[in-house]
Design brief:
The complex is a heterodimer. Chain A is mainly β. Chain A is built from no helices and twelve strands. Chain A is globular, with a radius of gyration of 14 Å. In chain B, strand 4 and strand 5 form a beta hairpin. Classes of the chains: A mainly beta, B mainly beta.
Chain lengths: 115, 113
């Protein structure tokens, strides 16, 4: 079965520091991968997505993610974190077979930013 | 931009009540989804729909039903609300034509007392 693992439940970084959020997936074919961000009390907003081609994808708000097939990973990065980046981040993979078109989400990583 | 509107941001209901959560989208998307979100559990799929009058069970359909009489509206129904259904409920849509991922509503935080 398809699955997504975000190993870090909570991460704290200082403002201005770099950030990497980890995501590993289990999937039997070429995956469609997504990162979403959720601010407190809000719905989810799409940060970026990977379908094919260049394995380094750029998203909104200065985020990028790199697809590594050999490691089954799709880690999210940002070179310099801003206080407004404090939120919860979800990695997702699109299902196939009976779940085609459905997104399977990781359990999320909560990001706190220290001044 | 696609707008996905959930009718209530906050809702408080009593145990045993029948509860309707409404989701309306304005971009003619075929697919619509209902998730619940709980701390430490992430998002779990309750029901989804690929078209009008079509519905499919997700991972946790027990205690819920859905209705999709019009393409733009997807309703989640709690037939007899229970305290363990206290949660954040998120509606999402996507089009089958292109894959831009899901668009989410702002969520409804339901408390069952």
């Amino acid at each position: 079965a398809q699955s997504v693992t975000q190993p870090d439940i909570h991460i704290t970084v200082s403002e201005g520091a770099s950030l990497e959020l980890r995501c590993n997936y289990s999937y039997g074919a070429t995956p469609y991968l997504f990162w979403y961000v959720q601010s407190p009390g809000q719905g989810l907003q799409l940060l970026l997505k990977y379908f094919s081609g260049d394995t380094l994808v750029q998203g909104i708000k200065g985020f990028e993610a790199e697809f590594k097939r050999s490691q089954s990973s799709f880690n999210l990065r940002k070179p310099s974190v801003h206080w407004s980046d404090a939120a919860e981040y979800f990695c997702a993979v699109e299902g196939y077979g009976g779940s085609q078109g459905n997104l399977i989400f990781g359990k999320g990583t909560k990001l706190s930013v220290k001044p | 931009d696609v707008k996905v509107t959930q009718s209530s941001r906050y809702l408080v209901k009593r145990t045993g009540e029948k509860v309707f959560l409404e989701c309306v989208q304005d971009m003619d998307h075929e697919n619509m989804f209902w998730y619940r979100q709980d701390p430490g559990l992430g998002l779990r799929l309750i029901y989804f729909s690929y078209d009008v009058k079509m519905k499919e069970k997700g991972d946790i359909p027990e205690g819920y039903s859905v209705s999709r009489e019009k393409k733009e509206r997807f309703s989640l129904i709690l037939e007899s609300a229970s305290t363990n259904q206290t949660s954040m409920y998120l509606c999402a849509t996507r089009t089958r034509v292109t894959n831009y991922g899901y668009t989410f509503g702002s969520g409804t935080r339901l408390t069952v007392v």
